[in-house]
Amino acid sequence: MSDTLKSIARNMTELLEQAHESIVSMLLAGNVEAALGLLEDCQDGAVALGTRIEELKKTSDVINVLEQYCETLYVLHEKILKTGTADIKSFKEALSQNLFAIKESVRKNILERKTAVFLPYKVSMWDSLESVWKAADEDSACDAYVIPIPYYDKTADGTLGEMHYEGHLYPTYVPITDYQSFDFAAHRPDMIFIHNPYDEYNYATSVHPLFYSKNLKRFTDNLIYIPYFVLEEIDPFDERAVKNMGHFCTAPGVIHADTVIVQSEKMRQVYIRALVEFAGEKSRGIWEKKILGLGSPKYDKVLEDAVNITVPEEWEKIIYKTDGGRKKVVFYNTGLGAMLEYNEAMLDKIENVLKDFFLIREEIVLLWRPHPLMKAAMQSMKPQLLKKYERLVVAYQSEGWGIYDDTTDLDRAIKISDAYYGDPSSVIQLFRKVGKPVMVQNVNVLE
């Protein structure tokens, strides 16, 4: 809830109470004209508060009470104007009852309410925020907004390229608010959740600069970062492993956030050690307070019941044999890191894997799911590899013996797969969480 609205509502109820006392004093002193003027001021104040609430599209309960109050003020004003006096006792009772109703409605619907804003950018990463959003959405004292934000591909020279917006791709049960229509300054949310920590320092993509973490801090007192990934657990006392984690732990979103929620207590200790190494021992207290090891919403999502999973008909034709039996499904993951490290060798590996799985296609289905930013990253950093990569993809799709999954639904792919094969990736941790076997490919081994 906007701090501005809370402040206006709190101040207005206090001013109305003071005004009521002054009006009674004026009537007792026979100063009718001043009393009428102050009654009009009370009505103007109530209208201003109601208008502000409507602008922010908040609850209509307070507006209804304010309208009743304005009606009472009008009746009292007209009675005094007509008779030149008022029954002070009934006058005080009428105003007191209305003011009590306003205070109660403001307390319940404004002062005690929270506003939580969720700012995903790629819908495929929505699972890193969804369970937290669900809890906020189910909280009767919280207004939860899901506001997908635009992002850009990065060009080879690091400038912003094509813009993408995926607000139309979210599940139907997630109500979407247009980022262009939400006034962050007016609402000033109690909490803003992000899952992209890199700001301008991601080489493949960039969210719109307006939504960099350093800018979002201006609009909330609690910017909350939850990583879009989960990692293999690391020993906090393994100095080399902690050092290798540095680029995750010291990203701008971590530094600027007021709260950071990571997958475990052990990972919390890793973040704290990396950040202390980055900022100095005197900063330890800051990180110990900021970093919380509460778990990852990605685990919540992958552990959900698979009953409601919808498998495309064209996938089912590949997965099931003519006799009705089901083939094993292997999730094949190709990641950005391996492509950027191995270059042409990675393309040779992919080609080799596709040939091998083609030979066993009657018993095992390959579900190839490349990193969602693969093409964007190659276009920005490895453009010389893009044509060959796209030829491999087109050939695989046209042959029709396997599944190419470039949809936004990672969890569906995990749930219908029997095993994982591919590059080191945070997806491995999700397969392990649900107890499915994992095999990591060696790019240098070709068969």
Key words describing this protein structure:
447 residues, alpha/beta, Four Helix Bundle (Hemerythrin (Met), subunit A), Rossmann fold, 6-stranded parallel β-sheet, 5-stranded parallel β-sheet, elongated
Account of the protein in words:
The protein has 447 residues and is α/β, with parallel strands linked by helices. It folds into three domains: 3-111, Four Helix Bundle (Hemerythrin (Met), subunit A); 114-300, 3-Layer(aba) Sandwich (Rossmann fold), CATH 3.40.50; 306-440, Rossmann fold (3-Layer(aba) Sandwich), CATH 3.40.50. Helices cover 51% and strands 13% of the residues. The chain is built from 20 helices and 14 strands. A six-stranded parallel sheet has the order 2-1-5-7-8-9. A five-stranded parallel sheet has the order 12-11-10-13-14, with helices on both faces. Strand 3 and strand 4 (160-164) form a beta hairpin. The mean pLDDT is 92.
What is the topological layout?
Layout: H1 3-28, H2 32-55, H3 60-83, H4 88-111, E1 114-119, H5 130-138, E2 142-146, E3 151-154, E4 160-164, H6 184-187, E5 191-194, E6 205-207, H7 213-216, E7 223-225, H8 239-244, H9 246-249, H10 252-256, E8 259-261, H11 265-279, H12 284-290, E9 291-292, H13 297-302, H14 313-319, E10 328-334, H15 336-342, H16 344-359, E11 364-370, H17 374-381, H18 383-399, E12 403-404, H19 410-416, E13 419-422, H20 427-433, E14 438-440
Parallel strand pairs: 1-2, 1-5, 5-7, 7-8, 8-9, 10-11, 10-13, 11-12, 13-14
Antiparallel strand pairs: 3-4, 3-6
